[in-house]
What we know:
17 strands, five-stranded antiparallel β-sheet, alpha+beta, elongated, Heat Shock Protein 90, 48% helix
Amino acid sequence: MDQIVPENVKQTEPSDATLLKNHRVNIHFPWLSIFASFLLIVFFVITVDQELSLFYGIENNGIDLQNKVSLLIILGLIYLLDIRFFLNKKSQVIAHINNLNNQLTLLSQSKKKQQQRANTYSDHSEKLKTFISDKLLEYMEYDEKFIHFKGIASEVRHNGVISYDKVVTALNKAVEQQKFLALYEQTDNDESEPDKHTIDALMDYQSALDAMRYLWDLLDLSTADNMSLHIGNQLIDCEEQYFQLQLDSQKSLDITQSIPVSPTFYPQMAILMTFALISDELEIKNLIALAKINELILDKPFTFDNQLFHISLESTPELLGNHNHIILLLENLIKNAQFFVNKNRFKQKTDRIIVRLFKEDNFAHFSIYNRGPQINPDAIEEIFKLGFSTRNRSSTNNKQHHGKGLGLFFASEIVKGYQGSIEATNIENIETGYLLSLNLASGETLNHKIKTAFIDGKMNVKQENESQWSNELVIQPDIPIESISIIPIELNGDKEGLIELEHTTGPIDESEGIEWLEPAVTGISQWFVQLKAFKNVHKLTFKPLDINGVCFDIKIPTAKSHLELT
């Protein structure tokens, strides 16, 4: 039972000395009753024993019953006196305990108040920091925000011009020497390919040269007073050179000499070089080396998969400008996606960061998708502003700033310079219906209408005639399965107009299983099918996939679109 604290009790914290003094309680022991009982017992023993009576000079005849009763009454009075003392002490102990409870209650209330004050002041402090940060970012001018960063970059640029020229000159000579050596080895030995060590050295020198040029372009961009205007001016120069090349279809020697650097680049190469910076995939590096020798390789579609990425590149026309600017744009977006992947590792083995490139009208369309926390819809228009970081979107209660708010701002400014567009979209899980058809070895077809939905933070699936949801659907027919067909349908069962989305496997070996991921055009697969074979008995598992995440879409006008506009 809780103790009620009197209103007149002064709520102050007692000192340690006072607490020690108040904690001392005198314990009453019934010595008087025990001593009197002992004497009376001894007296009665002596009076009963004649020898002891004679020894102590007590006459038995002199002690009658009335005297004995008087002695017992006196003993009883002594007991009553001790009982009174005991009750008094008991009331004192109870009062002391109540006092201690009151003190504990006061201490608890005092600590709660102190904690509330601490939480209140802490919350006020965080709000004040956020308010000051927001106001500073809102009212500070562009030059003031970047004065420190630009100052460092300008100093590096100023002091590094001579060193940069020396390094680039040396690397160019090394690349030319390795190319000459590779050609010499190929012709001297009548071999189709030069020595592997020569190719490796050529790739190392070329990678170092590309890295130095990327660093230089990054410093050049960071020291510009207006990033988008700086890129726009460079784009105008590239546009003039591109028009000049188009006017002379033969590309005469005079023109090529007057244009030492190509005014266009392939967006496929920009993506490949971006991944070369952030990963050590040999397949990508080899493709870059081959593309530098023969650009026609980039006309073929390219796909790449590892545990973290799925890359899909389609043949896309050239873009005007400097490919290093697009590399900076893509590097910021991809590293942003990697941050959320490393913070919250994929829970589905099919999850990947999906990077796609394809042609859309007169644009090169870049798409970067990652699974994970979505962006607050109220802030999705603010993410490209300076100082706003998407790395704070993982928790609405997290008030710490993990990012500097520069990456997406740089990306937006680069896209503006290219006269393109960039937008972020939250990818949502939606209820979907499917017609799952199993073609059996007997010629029979089993049709299952299934439905998927996002429930309690997980994707679930059930058959149309069932009420119980589960995270996967297991079907085990008695006859082996020859092929599988999956058709998206309306939830009411109408599949008209959706037949073109049908996905069908080829013939399935009765003794082998398959793992089949939805071949989605966007690369964002919504289901995964696994088929296991056990002695001519097949077990099929259909698992819906959680696709909640964020997708960044960038559209950059192609070089030919500039010609059409003129």
